[in-house]
């Protein structure tokens, strides 16, 4: 039996070597010897017999091994062209179990935050960058052990269930007797002051209450805690630092001047009240006031191209744009961001509302990319959502002007020689006086006022 197996192995090995070397004579001999050995099948998957030929066809298969508990190194994703580095803020720690696409850390850059998800389910094995450390594109961030910890996390609730069920038996024991209201007898009784005779005659003995314990130390402790004056220091994130730097650069570079006006919101409010249900039914979104001001700003920018222009300080040239990209300032917990609505001159109210909703949703989810905030020829800041009555906005460089909206409040105004209560809004335009003169600035702001007060001006192109 053993000699027969050795013979088969030897013949099979010869046939393999002969086929690899291309020797047809040796291949036929080896195949004949192999077929003469009772056609023993060694592996039906690898050796096949062709009935038309005496030579066996040998197929080779390569198999891939699935590695469990493989450790991978996750690197920093590539940044945009205008961003070179960022600061790491870890959401997970070493030993934490993460699922696929779960955010492990955020990288705060000058303009936005980049989320780094986990490429697979596993356990964080090592953090290669400290919290707050600076990274560039391609820098290794952390090591992840794939597949590790997932079964343990699933078994943990099952293991905790019996433990949670274990405490009830001790509760079945009889409860301890309630503590005596008398309490321990003090070894030394405090001196009791003598009671006047007239007090004993007017009140029964049971009505005399014991003297309460002094509470002065407790009151002093509470007073001391309230009087404590503490401080805490928090490092400024990159976005806040960049905002502060850009605003200061705007003050140092631009010759900023602000002009004001007020807008009667009666007509736009009535139009919104009349068509808001039909607008919501058709476009599946609410009709707000922001779309009216964005459309009015695009109309006014086309009428006054100097407000839509910018000074190129390197070449000392004025760049006029024939397109309108309006940046809408949005406040987020991490700072002020200004996503851009592009080509507003060709949009209607529904398109503008849709773009505002999409950008606002991305801002709330911290999903704004650098591309969403690059560019912009004009900025609108709506402080009225916070109840602002009046204010002067600061130019968003390298732009040349910014429109500030404020709250809508009922105020007495003169209409046709009579005093009426109207919903009024103050608007402010801050502009770079190096490029824009007062005539262009005032005309621009009055154009916005006329369009918002009567949207029919857009249809008549007046």
UniProtKB/TrEMBL annotation:
One of its GO terms (biological process) is tricarboxylic acid cycle. The keyword Mitochondrion applies. The keyword Transferase applies. Its cofactor is (R)-lipoate. Its EC number is 2.3.1.61. Belongs to the 2-oxoacid dehydrogenase family. It comes from Astatotilapia calliptera. InterPro entries: 2-oxoA_DH_lipoyl-BS, 2-oxoacid_dehydrogenase, 2-oxoacid_DH_actylTfrase, Biotin_lipoyl, CAT-like_dom_sf, Single_hybrid_motif, SucB. Residues 71-145 form the Lipoyl-binding domain. It is an enzyme of class 2 (transferase). GO terms for molecular function: dihydrolipoyllysine-residue succinyltransferase activity. This is Dihydrolipoyllysine-residue succinyltransferase component of 2-oxoglutarate dehydrogenase complex, mitochondrial. SUPFAM superfamilies: CoA-dependent acyltransferases, Single hybrid motif. It is found in: Mitochondrion matrix; Nucleus. Residues 165-196 have a biased composition (Pro residues).
């Amino acid at each position: 039996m053993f000699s027969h197996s050795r013979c088969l192995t030897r013949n099979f090995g010869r046939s393999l070597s002969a086929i690899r070397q291309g020797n047809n004579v040796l291949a036929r001999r080896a195949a004949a010897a192999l077929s003469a050995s009772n056609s023993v099948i060694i592996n039906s998957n690898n050796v096949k017999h062709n009935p038309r030929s005496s030579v066996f066809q040998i197929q080779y298969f390569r198999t891939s091994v699935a590695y469990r508990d493989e450790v991978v190194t996750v690197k920093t994703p590539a940044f945009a062209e205008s961003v070179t580095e960022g600061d790491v803020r870890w959401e997970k720690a070493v030993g934490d179990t993460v699922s696929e696409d779960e955010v492990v850390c955020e990288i705060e850059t000058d303009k936005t935050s980049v989320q780094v998800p986990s490429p697979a389910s596993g356990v964080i094995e090592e953090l290669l960058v400290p919290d707050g450390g600076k990274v560039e594109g391609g820098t290794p961030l952390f090591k992840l052990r794939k597949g590790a910890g997932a079964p343990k996390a699933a078994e943990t609730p099952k293991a905790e269930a019996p433990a949670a069920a274990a405490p009830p038996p001790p509760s079945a024991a009889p409860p301890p007797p309630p503590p005596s209201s008398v309490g321990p007898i003090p070894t030394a009784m405090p001196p009791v002051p003598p009671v006047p005779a007239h007090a004993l005659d007017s009140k029964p003995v049971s009505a005399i209450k014991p003297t309460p314990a002094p509470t002065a130390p407790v009151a002093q402790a509470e007073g001391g805690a309230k009087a404590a004056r503490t401080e805490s220091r928090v490092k400024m994130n990159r976005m806040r630092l960049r905002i502060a730097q850009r605003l200061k650069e705007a003050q140092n570079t631009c010759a900023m001047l602000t002009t004001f006006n007020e807008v009667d919101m009666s007509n736009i409010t009535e139009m919104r009240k009349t068509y808001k249900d039909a607008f919501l039914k058709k476009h599946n979104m609410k009709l707000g006031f922001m779309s009216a001001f964005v459309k009015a700003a695009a109309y006014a920018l086309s009428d006054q191209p100097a407000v839509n222009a910018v000074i190129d300080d390197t070449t000392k040239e004025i760049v006029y744009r024939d397109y309108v990209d309006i940046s809408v300032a949005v406040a987020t917990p991490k700072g002020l961001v200004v996503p851009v609505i592009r080509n507003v001159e060709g949009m209607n109210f529904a398109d503008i509302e849709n773009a505002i909703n999409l950008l606002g949703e991305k801002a709330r989810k911290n999903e704004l990319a650098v591309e969403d905030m690059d560019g912009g020829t004009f900025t609108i800041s709506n402080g009225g959502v916070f109840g602002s009555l009046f204010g002067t906005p600061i130019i968003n460089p390298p732009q040349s002007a910014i429109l500030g909206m404020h709250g809508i409040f009922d105020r007495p105004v003169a209409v046709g020689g009579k005093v009426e209560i109207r919903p009024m809004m103050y608007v402010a335009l801050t502009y770079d006086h190096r490029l824009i003169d007062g005539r262009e600035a005032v005309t621009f702001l009055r154009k916005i006022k006329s369009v918002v007060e009567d949207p029919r001006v857009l249809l008549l192109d007046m």
